[in-house]
């Protein structure tokens, strides 16, 4: 078996071969769904008691009182002071760059007055309370804390509640440090579906929030789907993806390593290159084979590259852009000469990395834009996480006396045509001024 | 039984009484879910053939060929020319006011350069293809066509596909006229879960879309939930709601009729007034009892007012705002002196109608803002339908050679701390410039 598949856009089976690589088995596991359902029910009914039970059971924590579930701020500050200086500095650079970018997303309340002196507008308000789920154990990423917490706080969210499981009491200091730098308000050592339930319904100890964001395993994902409606959720993230459009003039090692940098996430991650230069494709394949054995995450890389990776020969860069739009990748690298010229051709992608120096890994940590991006072709209709995910809008409608007469006529004609007579009468009353000087 | 409940915020059971009025049985009907599941499967597998079968079965349409399902544009234009002049004029006024408001929501692609000449930004693109569901039969509202189609078109959606069932071949001319004025691109006479399936998966005749918007019955709502992920969806709308804060100085008839204008939608619709003036509450109750028997939609009004309506005595207007924030209503009327002064106290509401002349019905048709609003307390975390629902963002990341060195150091420290070595190496390669002058 080859390390990575090779396709050619001129092959008559190209379209179906590509489709079969893009598809993946999303684990629709009924047993997970049932477990999640009963965990959520228990949390809803029994609050802290159920939360303690599940945390003792799943995370093997020796907790007796609910307040033991909260990790006090002093601990995070201690962690921040204890991590290596170099790492602290790196986190701080990330924070300042993520802030700089997301501050550009600030929008304001606006309104305008029409010729009848009616005032119409849109008011922006932050969400009151947001829950941030942060996975524990091996896949515990300080960068994800920053990418979620910083836009929430710039958006003005007054209470940001972070939850993260601490299996066997293990806490990641970098995650605690990131919580501190990200201005998280409270932190609870809980995880899984029970943490999602606690945030959605509230317990005696854990505050009930209005929206839950952040990635998690399949239990967490199911639980988020279930509580959606009771609270808002961000998105259900699929496996990570990178698509690289290359003209064949970037160092082949760079491209190989960029493909690795997605593939190393997990076995379902997807790494694809589109290139018109067959020799260069050979070179990248050689580099992949050469570099792979040296990689610490060899096993994951090998599986994701061979099952879901592909090097695709295309006719030209314009065809590459068409294929990219069809795939609507989470991450798109345009690794070509004059890469900027291809950007207008791209309609669907979570993030577009432009030029040979823009490696996807820079975006994951410190370029500034968010690393929470739409996966599984959802970039066709959704966006990176941003300030807008932590705010909502209310329409403002202030109608003058004159306006109520003019608009009332139109409204009442349309309401009657829809058979909604109370709508019509309510507008008509203002026109008639019935009892209107009662005051 | 009284026509409408009376509550007092000073009662010790107030909080639980209010909760019991706010709650409603969302119909989680397993049989509907099963039916929807099998309809979607059939449409996915058999395309047009299944679509024709279901349309013959559910809408009793005598259709043999799939192209008979499309309603050609000439028919809409004919409808537009045939509706009464007064109604056409009213639709046209609505169109121009909805356009004026939603054009204020236009946002543009932006970018900035940092001190290392890295360019960071955000690109805005419309969704390629949007499906718009419009209910048929009695609850067929031309205003909903306009409220969905106009922002989609201003957002730049190139292909807007409307679907609407035509039971027994019945078509509403006002709906056709609205499709024409709203610049819909194609229209199919299909409905129910089969229409949602056709839009989500595509058939030989119906194009596959990227997002589906618009209200529908419980089959449509279930189907939208099911296909979410394959396509985007707008929201799952609950029963309509109005909350009126009144100082007791608006004509009581106006308030009574405003309460009716939500209650007439359906039996689950909710109408609540908050007022500090007990005499005025009596007056409103009297008006309700007086006006109700004359209303054509008496049966619906009676049920929704008695089951889900309430007149609530509050201490003062500031407490009224607190309760409003807790309820997070779809429509909020502030019918008071100096209503503007209360607006800053409102954190959660779909639309805020300010002042005695701003009746909710004006917002439903022609004030300008969208009438598709978050229901069932979801205004805590979501927004009115808007341009932003028909566009998405892509991050732009263009890193300079110098930037790749500076950012690469930070990224590589953080990637290593997270155990993601390929991420670190990919950043490091740019720093080392490995083979970087290969070109």
Automatic annotation (TrEMBL), chains A, B:
Active-site residues annotated for this sequence: 330-331
Family designation: Belongs to the histidinol dehydrogenase family.
InterPro entries: Ald_DH/histidinol_DH, Histidinol_DH_CS, Histidinol_DH_monofunct, Hstdl_DH
EC class (word): oxidoreductase
GO cellular component terms given for this protein: cytosol
Organism name: Candidatus Kinetoplastidibacterium stringomonadis TCC290E
Protein name: Histidinol dehydrogenase
Recorded name of the encoding gene: hisD
Keywords for the protein's UniProt record, in alphabetical order: Amino-acid biosynthesis, Histidine biosynthesis, Metal-binding, NAD, Oxidoreductase, Zinc
GO molecular function, one term: zinc ion binding
Reactions accelerated catalytically: L-histidinol + 2 NAD(+) + H2O = L-histidine + 2 NADH + 3 H(+)
């Amino acid at each position: 078996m080859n390390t990575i598949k090779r396709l050619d856009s001129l092959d008559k089976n190209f379209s179906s071969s590509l489709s079969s690589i893009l598809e993946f088995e999303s684990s629709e596991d009924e047993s997970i769904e049932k477990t999640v359902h009963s965990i959520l029910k228990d949390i809803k009914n029994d609050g802290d008691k159920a939360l303690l039970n599940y945390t003792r059971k799943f995370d093997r924590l020796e907790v007796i009182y609910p307040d033991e579930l909260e990790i006090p701020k002093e601990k995070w500050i201690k962690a921040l002071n204890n991590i290596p200086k170099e790492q602290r500095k790196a986190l701080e650079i990330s924070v300042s760059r993520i802030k700089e970018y997301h501050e550009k997303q600030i929008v304001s309340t606006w309104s305008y007055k029409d010729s009848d002196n009616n005032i119409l507008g849109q008011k922006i308000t932050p969400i009151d309370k947001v829950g941030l789920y942060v996975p524990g154990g091996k896949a515990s990423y300080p960068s994800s804390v920053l990418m979620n917490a910083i836009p929430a706080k710039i958006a003005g969210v007054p209470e940001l509640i972070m939850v993260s499981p601490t299996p066997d009491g293990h806490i990641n200091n970098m995650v605690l440090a990131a919580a501190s730098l990200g201005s998280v308000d409270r932190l609870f050592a809980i995880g899984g579906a029970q943490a999602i339930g606690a945030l959605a319904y509230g317990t005696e100890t854990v505050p009930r929030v209005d929206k839950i964001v952040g990635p998690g395993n399949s239990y967490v994902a199911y639980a988020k789907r279930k509580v959606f409606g009771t609270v808002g959720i961000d998105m259900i993230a699929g496996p990570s993806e990178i698509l690289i459009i290359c003209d064949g003039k970037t160092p082949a090692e760079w491209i190989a390593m960029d493909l690795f940098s997605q593939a190393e996430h997990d076995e379902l991650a997807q790494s694809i290159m589109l290139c018109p230069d067959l020799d260069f494709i050979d070179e990248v394949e050689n580099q992949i084979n050469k570099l792979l054995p040296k990689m610490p995450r060899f096993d994951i890389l090998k599986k994701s590259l061979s099952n879901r990776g592909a090097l695709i020969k295309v006719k030209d860069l314009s065809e590459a852009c068409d294929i990219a739009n069809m795939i609507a990748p989470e991450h798109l690298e345009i690794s070509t000469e004059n890469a900027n010229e291809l950007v207008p051709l791209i309609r669907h992608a979570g993030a577009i990395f432009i030029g040979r120096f823009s490696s996807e890994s820079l975006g994951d940590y410190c370029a500034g834009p968010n690393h929470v991006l739409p996966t599984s072709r959802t970039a066709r209709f959704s966006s990176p996480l941003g300030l807008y995910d932590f705010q909502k809008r209310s329409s403002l409608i202030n109608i003058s006396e004159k306006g109520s007469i003019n608009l009332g006529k139109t409204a009442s004609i349309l309401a009657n045509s829809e058979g909604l007579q109370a709508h019509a009468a309510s507008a008509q009353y203002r026109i008639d001024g019935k009892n209107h000087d009662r005051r």
